Amino acid sequence: MIDGKTNILGVIGDPIEHTFSPAMQNAGLQSLGLNYVYLPFHVKGNRLSDAIGGAKGLGIKGLNVTIPHKSNVIPFLDDIDPIARMIGAVNTIKFDYGDGEVFTKGFNTDAYGCLRAIEEKTSIKDKKVTILGAGGASRAIAFQMACSGIDELSILNRNYEKAKSLKEELRSNLNKQEYDFNNVNAYEIDDLKRVLDSSDILIDTTPIGMYPNVNDKPIASADMMHEDLVVNDIVYTPMETSLIKEAKKANAEVVYGYKMLLYQGIRSFEIWLGKEAPVNIMEKALLDVLGI
Ligand code: ATR
Questions:
Q1: Beta strands per DSSP E along 157-263
Q2: 13: which of 66, 73, 221, 237 fits an S-S bond (Cβ 3.0–4.6 Å)?
């Protein structure tokens, strides 16, 4: 029931009509009986400043931020979480109202979502983590992992130079921060088997196997994996990607791609509401809207 006391949350992006977040967030809000509603807002690039100002004016309590605004929104915010600042992208904004003032803080829960998805299966503390790919998703996940108590990070990419420059960026940024982590290395794709032999966790951030290219061969095959490896593909369409199938063949533990989507939303919910999110209910709503 929407009434005079209903609080507003939402997501801004362009395009926005395909967002899964309203289904997932409203299911969570309703199940806890919270007088909140979560809405999609179609915001064009040249209206981003108006959107943030307007949200403050309207008393909106929280926003998710999606493509293409994740980096451009940063200058409009009062404070940025240190990991989001290193990643250079914000997907969650919390608006605090008090004494006529509004305080905005930006977070990045995307990569945190990946971490928490993996932590459903195993603690990442002191683990050796291998990341495939060196694009935007890899960068965010690499920073998040490096700041979260792992032992070692290995980055492998088709274009080795990109893996190397990501490694260098991580090293120089992490040295300046409170997160003192240096054990990050870049390797050629040909070294994957050797690297995986001593890895605990593999995260594939490449789009290989994503619908409609569902039969594309993954970089990591079953013969390169071992039973104690936890394998996460961030692709979630289809759920059973070619990489997930290889991991199952090797009797490795698998972490489905949709879990990252789930836990980024769970974390946003927790940031806005300051309470534990109903994971099972939000997961069911997400799976329903994804059609899996
Ligand atoms: P995102 O922002 O989603 O991470 P991206 O920045 O385009 O997307 O990065 C995609 C990553 O997947 C890149 O590291 C890319 O490798 P290159 O740097 O060599 O281009 C990797 N990738 C994409 N398709 C690939 C393929 N068919 N084989 C191997 N790597 C692939």
A1: 184-187, 201-204, 230-233, 253-255
A2: 66
